[in-house]
Amino acid sequence: MTRGSTDTAFAPAKVNLTLHVTGRRRDGYHLLDSLVAFADVVDVLTVERGDALTVCGPFADGVPTDDRNLIRRALRLAGTPRAVMLEKNLPHPAGLGGGSSDAAAVLRLVGACPDPAALLSLGADVPVCMTPRAQRMRGIGEILSPVPMPPLHAVLINPGVALPTGRVFAGLATTDNRPMDALPDAGPTLDWLARQRNDLEPPARQIAPVIGDVLSALREAGADIARMSGSGATCFGLWPSRALADKAAHELTLSGWWVRACTLI
Ligand code: ATP
């Protein structure tokens, strides 16, 4: 979207509908098999000529504005300095890949398309975020295939605990290394989704038991499926329609947690 001399892009929250840990490489990286989708809950980036990074919005606190920020690292990789205003609407760290999605959004905005290895050097979730539609993600994030998927209606809840990704992976017990079941041709069904899992949920719950409370709250509010996304602590619940997800989100807001109804594509 162009507004005069500024360009605007949306960086949608990434949701891991499933996340199976299927092994570990010699270099320590975990191998994953994950169905990833994207929500209409977004960070907003506005880009113009210049070089500074400014952050505003409800989750601006704690977002680095120096070269630790993935937006700056992405622009450097693309060789296209820009001034960026980031409206940070997504909690972090949260298992929603907000930083990765911001990096991908700014790359799309400047028309840069670094090769997969360069994208991976920014973060395992950056390649999948370059095309924010349902995809199966394997390897360490570099093997991607589009997945047909009807829009899903969800509620996202983040209880406000910061779970460092490394600590959650470190708590993984030996997993059964099973990849996802074969995806139905027409895309994931509720039954299929219910049979898959997020292997990071048990270690994340060990560190932050409140995740169990969030999952119970989603189920009590009527979710067909409730599961954690990524390395947490955000969890999602699925509902049959957006109206029902909106209604559940309205009720769940009383919890005091960050609660958003959304549509996943
Ligand atoms: P993932 O699921 O990929 O681990 P996450 O949702 O848990 O991601 P991020 O939103 O990527 O977490 O943020 C993790 C940390 O990365 C932040 O706490 C912050 O220190 C740093 N960071 C770097 N760039 C950004 C960015 N653009 N927005 C937010 N945090 C960023």
Distance between the termini: 20 Å
Fraction of helical residues: 25-40%
CATH C-level name of the largest domain:
Alpha Beta
CATH architecture of the largest domain: 2-Layer Sandwich
* Total count of strands: 11
User: What summary fits the major beta sheet?
Assistant: 7 strands, mixed
Number of structurally distinct domains: 2
Low-pLDDT residue spans: none
Fraction of residues in β-strands: 25-35%
- Name the shape in a single word: globular
The count of helical stretches stands at 9
Radius of gyration of CA atoms, rounded to a whole number: 18 Å
SS content category: alpha+beta
Small-molecule binders here are: adenosine-5'-triphosphate
CATH overall fold name of the largest domain: Ribosomal Protein S5, domain 2
Mean pLDDT: 96
| Quaternary state of the chains | single chain
Q: What is the H/E order? A: EEEEHEHHHEEEHHHHEEHE
Function: Catalyzes the phosphorylation of the position 2 hydroxy group of 4-diphosphocytidyl-2C-methyl-D-erythritol.
Catalytic activity: 4-CDP-2-C-methyl-D-erythritol + ATP = 4-CDP-2-C-methyl-D-erythritol 2-phosphate + ADP + H(+)
Family: Belongs to the GHMP kinase family. IspE subfamily.
Pfam families: GHMP_kinases_C, GHMP_kinases_N
